[in-house]
């Protein structure tokens, strides 16, 4: 009699990396496929995202409403979105605002979404994103359905659905993967394991050593990637995109770390000791290591970084100003838009 031990799976997962924590290349072959322009663009987008995030946190409650901080997760977010085509779809959570903004979702609408204004939920027709989901894992079943539609359209489009580690403890996650596997939908499940579901740490959510292995029960291939390494995330998503476009759904587990609170305004020190574990994660954070990598190649400077930060802060001010011009919503608005299609 032989009960299979989940430990047999663990050795198959080796976190995929292109650069290590010191910005040193560990995978020359993957690196060779990037142009200097792409290498710089990835940094520009990450720095922009960090600046937007930090300034948003200051504005929270006054202007923005609920802001879910993303610092520490830029490599996962930017690297994965960068690997998509413009006509691919994104099914985001409340935290995945950077990906949808880079995919064309208007910035002022992102502010309105965070304020709970209905205009923030109206996605322009030519922008391929779903409304950010606040119900944990509900976006997974939606992305499976959308992935089935894309398969039937047969245009090579895919949908990427984001979820936190907490979403993998939900029923919708398993149901979505099972359906995706049975019907061969064009879906990429992208799990951002940022170590916490609100205040609950990963060790209190699951006894599996990886979240990636959860896909295997549904018959879906999966991989673990260093979610603080933007080049690795890009490469892995690019491959996943090719597979999903052929009706092979896949799961990516990106290991990263949420540096700030769950929602801006929370006090993370109530559930997370700001001790050496925190310090250890900070040392791995995506901007520091990627900056080291670029500087070694003379592809990045302090001046460039400052200019990007200034640009992001300006854009945020503009977006807030534009959001201010939108009339306050009323109860009657909610009733009228209930059965209307979006613009
Ligand atoms: C079905 C459901 N249960 C509970 C909540 C309350 N809630 C909001 S965020 C959150 C934690 C989400 O954690 P995770 O999926 O890991 O995403 P993260 O915020 O870490 O990116 C919870 C439990 C919710 N929104 N939906």
TrEMBL record:
CDD domains: TPP_E1_PDC_ADC_BCADC. Residues 44-331 form the Dehydrogenase E1 component domain. It catalyses: N(6)-[(R)-lipoyl]-L-lysyl-[protein] + 3-methyl-2-oxobutanoate + H(+) = N(6)-[(R)-S(8)-2-methylpropanoyldihydrolipoyl]-L-lysyl-[protein] + CO2. It comes from the Bacteria. One of its GO terms (molecular function) is branched-chain 2-oxo acid dehydrogenase activity. SUPFAM superfamilies: Thiamin diphosphate-binding fold (THDP-binding). Its EC number is 1.2.4.4. One of its GO terms (biological process) is branched-chain amino acid catabolic process. Its cofactor is thiamine diphosphate. Keywords: Oxidoreductase, Pyruvate, Thiamine pyrophosphate. Pfam families: E1_dh. It is an enzyme of class 1 (oxidoreductase). InterPro entries: Alpha-ketoacid_DH_E1_comp, DH_E1, THDP-binding. The branched-chain alpha-keto dehydrogenase complex catalyzes the overall conversion of alpha-keto acids to acyl-CoA and CO(2). It contains multiple copies of three enzymatic components: branched-chain alpha-keto acid decarboxylase (E1), lipoamide acyltransferase (E2) and lipoamide dehydrogenase (E3). Belongs to the BCKDHA family. This is 2-oxoisovalerate dehydrogenase subunit alpha.
């Amino acid at each position: 009699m032989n009960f299979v031990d989940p430990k047999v799976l663990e050795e198959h997962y080796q976190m995929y990396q292109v650069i290590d924590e010191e910005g040193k290349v560990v995978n020359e072959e993957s690196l060779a496929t990037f142009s200097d322009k792409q290498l710089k663009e990835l940094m520009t987008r990450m720095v922009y995202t960090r600046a937007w995030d930090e300034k948003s946190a200051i504005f929270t409650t006054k202007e923005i409403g609920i802001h879910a901080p993303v610092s520490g997760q830029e490599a996962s977010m930017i690297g994965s979105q960068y690997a998509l085509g413009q006509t691919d779809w994104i099914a985001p959570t409340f935290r995945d605002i950077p990906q949808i903004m880079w995919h064309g979702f208007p910035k002022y609408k992102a502010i309105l979404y965070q304020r709970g204004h209905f205009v923030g939920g109206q996605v322009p027709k030519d922008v391929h994103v779903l409304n950010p989901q606040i119900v944990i894992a509900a976006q997974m079943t939606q992305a499976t359905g959308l992935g089935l539609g894309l398969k039937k359209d047969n245009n090579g489009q895919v949908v990427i659905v984001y979820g936190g580690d907490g979403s993998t403890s939900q029923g919708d996650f398993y149901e979505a993967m099972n359906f995706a596997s049975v019907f061969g939908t064009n879906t990429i499940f992208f799990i951002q394991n940022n170590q916490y579901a609100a205040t609950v740490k990963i060790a209190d959510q699951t006894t599996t050593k990886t979240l990636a292995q959860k896909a295997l029960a549904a018959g879906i291939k999966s991989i673990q990637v260093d979610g603080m390494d933007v080049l690795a995330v890009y490469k892995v998503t690019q491959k996943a995109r090719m597979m999903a476009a052929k009706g092979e759904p896949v799961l990516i587990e990106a290991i990263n770390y949420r540096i700030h609170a769950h929602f801006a305004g929370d006090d993370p020190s109530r559930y997370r000791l700001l001790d050496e574990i925190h310090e250890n994660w900070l040392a791995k954070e995506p901007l520091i290591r990627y900056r080291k990598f670029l500087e070694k190649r003379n592809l990045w400077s302090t001046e460039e970084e400052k200019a990007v930060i200034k640009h992001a802060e300006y854009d945020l001010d503009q977006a807030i100003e534009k959001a201010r011009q939108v009339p306050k919503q009323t109860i009657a608005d909610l009733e009228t838009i209930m059965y209307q299609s979006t613009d």
